[in-house]
Specification:
The chain is an alpha/beta fold. The protein is built from ten helices and eleven strands. Helix content is 33%, strand content 21%. The strands form three sheets. It has a seven-stranded mixed β-sheet, sandwiched between helices. Strands 2-3 form a two-stranded antiparallel ribbon. Strands 8-9 form a two-stranded antiparallel sheet.
């Protein structure tokens, strides 16, 4: 992995509506947040911080030696929580910060490093993030799978839960089961890097109409004229954990690793 200086923050809430207490749930003998922390440490980050508003998560993280930053319970997103960490720890404006959600125990360390390296390589970008190719119609039309389209240089034009780009001639026919290889269908991977100064700017912006409609925070950046660079993930990302089914899938993956 390339050696650049970056930090990783793991936003971790205890009060998940679909899977309460998920950061401390056991996966293959370790709490979920420990798996995420270990992936972050393996990425080459110079500092890894668990950001939470719950003492149960904080106590769990401290038990395996993690640095913890207590944050407000009023935050609406992980990005808001990370912005508070940046302010509290007084990180310099040009610090590269990776947002690795605390419910991503299977996210490869290689991708954490990749998104940070991409930020270091794109001075014009406000955010960098990743995608993987979509090759099946089911994923493309799944509203839980976020899609992204970019320009020729890899800068995001739009993110959506809808199937974009919409291949008119093919999609109007219900007979088509495969996707055209000539169209760049891409699934967004929810792993982000920013510079510390941008986070302060981001949280000062009001939520955007597109963001609220799609329930996609990254659309706030595009709405306010920000720039997001997107690159293809060098390896497949693991599955995040939102439900009991996701949890069992993560258990199987990490037990076999």
């Amino acid at each position: 992995m390339s050696q650049i200086d970056f930090k990783v923050v793991l936003p971790a809430r205890y009060a998940s509506s679909r899977l309460p207490g998920k950061p401390v749930l056991d996966i293959a003998g370790k709490p979920m947040i420990q798996h995420v922390y270990e992936r972050a440490c393996e990425s080459g980050a110079s500092e890894v911080v668990v950001a939470t508003d719950d003492e149960r998560v904080a106590s769990c993280a401290k038990s395996f030696g993690a640095e913890v930053c207590m944050t407000s319970s009023a935050h609406h997103s992980g990005t808001d929580r990370i912005a508070e960490v940046v302010k509290k720890l007084e990180w310099a404006d040009d610090t590269i910060v990776v947002n690795l959600q605390g419910d991503e125990p299977c996210m490869p360390a290689q991708l954490v490093n990749q998104v940070a390296t991409d930020m270091a390589s794109h001075a014009h970008a406000d955010i960098t993030t990743l995608f993987s190719k979509i090759t099946d119609r089911t994923t493309l039309f799944d509203p839980h799978a976020v899609k992204v389209v970019t320009d020729a240089e890899g800068y995001a034009l739009y993110f959506s839960r809808a199937p974009i780009p919409y291949h008119r001639d093919e999609f109007l026919s219900d007979q088509v089961e495969t996707l055209s290889e000539d169209v760049p269908f891409a699934r967004h991977i929810g792993l982000y890097a920013y510079r510390a100064a941008f986070l302060e700017k981001f949280v000062s912006w009001p939520p955007a109409p597109l963001e609220q409609a799609e329930s996609l925070e990254q659309l706030r950046v595009l709405w306010h004229g920000g720039v997001i660079h997107v690159t293809e993930a060098t390896v497949e990302p693991g599955h995040g954990v939102d439900t009991e089914e996701d949890l069992q899938r993560a258990v199987q993956q990490l037990q076999s690793a």
